[in-house]
Automatic annotation (TrEMBL), chain A:
<comment type="similarity">
    <text>Belongs to the ABC transporter superfamily.</text>
</comment>
<feature type="domain" description="ABC transporter">
    <location>
        <begin position="2"/>
        <end position="234"/>
    </location>
</feature>
<keyword id="KW-0029">Amino-acid transport</keyword>
<dbReference type="GO" id="GO:0005524">
    <property type="term" value="F:ATP binding"/>
</dbReference>
<protein>
    <submittedName>
        <fullName>Amino acid/amide ABC transporter ATP-binding protein 2, HAAT family</fullName>
    </submittedName>
</protein>
<dbReference type="InterPro" id="IPR052156">
    <property type="entry name" value="BCAA_Transport_ATP-bd_LivF"/>
</dbReference>
<keyword id="KW-0813">Transport</keyword>
<dbReference type="InterPro" id="IPR017871">
    <property type="entry name" value="ABC_transporter-like_CS"/>
</dbReference>
<dbReference type="InterPro" id="IPR003439">
    <property type="entry name" value="ABC_transporter-like_ATP-bd"/>
</dbReference>
Automatic annotation (TrEMBL), chain B:
<feature type="transmembrane region" description="Helical">
    <location>
        <begin position="135"/>
        <end position="154"/>
    </location>
</feature>
<feature type="transmembrane region" description="Helical">
    <location>
        <begin position="36"/>
        <end position="55"/>
    </location>
</feature>
<feature type="transmembrane region" description="Helical">
    <location>
        <begin position="174"/>
        <end position="191"/>
    </location>
</feature>
<dbReference type="InterPro" id="IPR043428">
    <property type="entry name" value="LivM-like"/>
</dbReference>
<keyword id="KW-1003">Cell membrane</keyword>
<feature type="transmembrane region" description="Helical">
    <location>
        <begin position="102"/>
        <end position="123"/>
    </location>
</feature>
<keyword id="KW-1133">Transmembrane helix</keyword>
<feature type="transmembrane region" description="Helical">
    <location>
        <begin position="294"/>
        <end position="323"/>
    </location>
</feature>
<feature type="transmembrane region" description="Helical">
    <location>
        <begin position="254"/>
        <end position="282"/>
    </location>
</feature>
Amino acid sequence: MLKIEDLHVYYGGIHALKGITMEVPENKIVTLVGANGAGKSTTLRAISSLVQPTQGKITFHGEDITKTKTADIVKKGITLVPEGRRIFANLTVLENINMGAFARNDKDGIKKDIQRIYEMFPRLKEREWQAAGTLSGGEQQMLAIGRALMSRPAVLMMDEPSLGLAPLLVKEVFRIIKEIYSQGMTILLIEQNATAALQVADYGYVLETGNIVLQGPGKELAANDEVKRAYLGKA
Amino acid sequence: MDSRQNIKRLLTLGLILLSCLVLFFAQGFLSSFNIRILNLAAIFVILGASMNLVLGFTGMFSLGHAGFMCVGAYVSAILTMSPASKELIYYMEPIIPPLANVHWPVFPAIVMAGVVAAFFGFLIGFPALRLRDDYLAIATLGFGEIIRIIVTNTITITNGSLGLKDIPSIKSLWIYWGFAIATIWILKQLINSSWGYAFKAIRDNEIAAEAMGIDVFKHKLLSFTVGAFFAGLAGALMGHLITSVDPTMFRFLFTFQILLIIVLGGLGSLTGSVIAGVVVTVSMEFLRFVEQPINLFGLIIPGIPGMRMVIFSLLLLMVILFYRQGLMGTREFNWDWILDKLGVARRKERGVA
């Protein structure tokens, strides 16, 4: 339902994305893997309209959203969990979760969704009134995911959710991703942890310096030597 | 509702009555010099709170506050001066015709001053708010100075560097503190609304705020414009307090005095701005003795003008070194805290069912 065709993004003189074409079908986990600077985050930022592509087209349910403003893209149902958690440190956990529902107006629905998030992340409930900046890294990542879910997205885009977390917590994050997916969410996942990401993904794309060099079903890619080469960035 | 809610309501009512009583007696018994200081404190409370909205709550490092005050002071002065005194004061070049005969009552003129300042805030914010951090500070500082220079040179409107005199004087504590309390109330409502939460989200993390679907630019512009409105209001009141204005009053150093107040009080706390606004203004007057020659056990220190600012600089240094959050941090005054301290039982309300 989310389609990207021939997407080019420049940062000043740097050609960060050199014509990417990919698709995220409904109710699937799609992952983008690749080394640092391959253009993974840029792809997500372009979908969210946080950066403007110079060329190419992004469509959602057939509708062109290339030039739509970020706020409207969230309303349409595409939400980004930004890299590095980026919670609102001085707001309480509950206020953070409420901010996720900023684009919504249905009070009762929001209340229900908060309860749902608390069921999914009991730790957040325990810390409801605490300033979010005092949470541990893992809890902050849970909060960032919970906050994004509050906008009731149709597509959840996650930018390196396992970044900087202990191995045990990385496992926990992937468990949550699978859980969200099993509830019927479409997920676009970016990971440096390529093996883990490809294990959960239905379909994967391997990015190398702004180009898609490989694609295929997740498990197939995980077994591919070529992937390891691209991921490690060896020539 | 539970008893706690009722107690809080009673306490709030009590506090309002008490402040009215204090104002009433202060108006009746204090010397006009002391009343003047309290009025100045009210103006600094408005300035502190409005700059805190921009800097403390929305995280925009803007230094254009003095410029907006300048706009407000001139608008209110020109609107309220009598046509006769305008003819006298604009002796270099007469004031342009449409403004020569306007003679508004004070109250609408002060509100108009805020509106015009807000309009300037909007105009300046539109290009400037695309910048952030230090760059925004430099740009707004520049715009503030530009306003002052325009005021100095549009002689047929502002009388240029000669300034304006004979502005209708307001002496009543009620008016200054009335405006101050109204400002605090409006800002508190704004901060606790969904706009306010958006401001705080932008302050904490702009990218995440944008990713949550908050229109960052629109909210920044709103916060900046509201801040400019209240700066204009405070500028107008300043004009009516001193009864004269001239462009040199609103140099950018003035902005740093407001910055001092909000840093001491706590970035992101209205309560802090109110307390620090009053304390700084009042001590600014009562510390005048340090500028007099002092005979300290035979050691004679000659009077040094500017010693007061040294004391404030030291205070600021101490706060930055040892108490970085300022007096209140991001906390606000609230009855719950006081009731907890007093040991009034709290209903188990936080376990939301």
